[in-house]
UniProtKB/TrEMBL annotation:
A divalent metal cation 2 binds at H131, H154. One of its GO terms (molecular function) is hydrolase activity, acting on ester bonds. It comes from Ideonella alba. It comes from the Bacteria. This is TatD family hydrolase.
Length: 269
């Protein structure tokens, strides 16, 4: 079974054909998707889609959205986690974290929301799904202060040392379409080198399209699209298999087991 550990199925890019996207994923063997929220406004959407399609979801406030979030949104997140605490399809707090790549963001506000959401995850007994973009050290500092029950460092692109520290704290590392680019030397090297219990697979659909879906700026201006979707996961997995010397079946088994380890509510039963 393929598990897409990060898919924004609620994104407007899927509004025209969402049912077909889910059907293509199932036909490709992607039988589970984790749908992380990015702000309070889409909490209900990810919850509804998870129940409608037999998927799972996470609730959190993304660092790129904290500047437009109200302080009271942290209270709303806490209430949502309480309201749905017995929902087996609620599997994590996310997508949360820090983004030190996009210029002009309020880093202090990001930090405050990140710290508060780690505390809410610990209170709820849930793992976290972390947004990591030039922010691994800051995220790790927070995890050392506020221990949570592991989770996934999504779209990981840090150093080998940072990867090892995340793993030591009970985290898996998410690898997706970026791994398919030959120039992504760091991502590919880490995907090949981390311990076998660390990698999980993701698409981040509709974002981070793999190499075979990538479009240049000129192509996009001409109307060509590069939307990613969960049906691409097995082909992305083939990239990881080649890097590690695993068979495709072994890759599916290992990565699914890793996902269930760090997100226990994914486990059957």
């Amino acid at each position: 079974m393929w598990i897409d550990t990060h898919c924004h199925l609620d994104a407007p890019e899927f509004d025209a054909d969402r049912e077909a996207v889910v059907a293509r994923a199932l036909a490709a063997g992607v039988s589970m998707q984790v749908l992380p929220a990015v702000e309070v406004a889409n909490f209900e959407a990810v919850r509804r889609l998870a129940h409608q399609h037999g998927l799972v979801y996470a609730l959190g406030i993304h660092p790129l959205y904290v500047d437009r979030a109200a302080d009271e949104d942290l209270d709303r997140l806490q209430q949502a986690l309480l309201t749905h605490r017995d929902d087996p399809r609620l599997v994590a707090v996310g997508e949360i974290g820090l983004d030190h790549f996009v210029p002009g963001l309020d880093r202090d506000r990001q930090q405050r929301f990140y710290t508060a959401q780690l505390k809410l995850a610990r209170e709820a007994g849930l793992p976290v799904i972390l947004h990591v973009r030039r922010s691994a050290d800051g995220l790790l500092a927070g995890l050392r202060r506020i221990a949570v029950s592991g989770g996934i460092a999504h779209a990981f692109n840090g150093s080998h040392q940072q990867a090892a520290v995340f793993a030591s704290l009970g985290f898996a590392l998410g690898f997706g379409g970026a791994m398919s680019f030959e120039r992504a030397l760091n991502i590919r090297a880490i995907a090949a080198a981390v311990d076998a219990h660390v990698p999980v697979l993701e698409t981040d659909a509709p974002d981070i399209p793999p190499q075979w879906l990538y479009r240049t700026a000129a192509q996009r201006a001409a109307g060509l699209t590069s939307r990613n979707e969960p049906a691409e996961l097995p082909r992305i997995a083939a990239e990881l298999a080649a890097l590690r010397g695993w068979t495709l079946a072994e890759t599916a088994e290992r990565c699914a087991a890793n996902a269930r380890r760090v997100i226990p509510r994914l486990a059957p039963g």
